Amino acid sequence: SMLFADKLSVRKELEQYAERVKERFYFELPSVNEQFMKVEIEPGFLLRGIPDRICYSDNIVYIVDYKTAAIPDPMKDRLQGLAYIYLLSRLEDIDVNKIELVLDYVKAEEVYQFKTTAKEMKDFESYLKNSFVQASILTEAYSTHGQIRKIPHTVGECSFCSMAGKCMAYQSAVN
Q1: If we measure between CA atoms, which residue out of 145, 144, 137, 135 comes closest to residue 165?
Q2: What is the pLDDT averaged over residues 113-125?
Q3: Cβ atoms within 10 A of the Cβ of 143, count?
Q4: Dihedral of CA 114/118/121/127: which sign?
């Protein structure tokens, strides 16, 4: 009976979120949900992502990322959104000035919108390339040493690291 009550509680919460989303400015726009995107940044360096929703208006494309955090952290979550903007602009050849990120914190009932500039996207691309280079260095060092904890690296910067499944720092962060 506890599991049944939990399921009802979760279902009710999801229904509340859905009602909130129906009130958003972007909801009626033509959209695609959970579209898998993949771009090769450089040979062997793939960036992948699945934005929750992409909405198309006449002159702006909104990338919507739903968040269920009780306490919004839009500056942290914006990094993930920049990856979606990068992917969409490259795949659909859309000017980044015409793409806006929408972080919809459905639980907290807060919505944040961000515009992006070409310079910011160029800086983000440099960040991505550097992250992949660093991941390659870690992978090479791991193949030499066999233990990731013997290799100096920044704990918590795991987004693009190919060592994520083998790294104790990553495992402790996930746990």
Answers
A1: 135
A2: 91
A3: 8
A4: negative
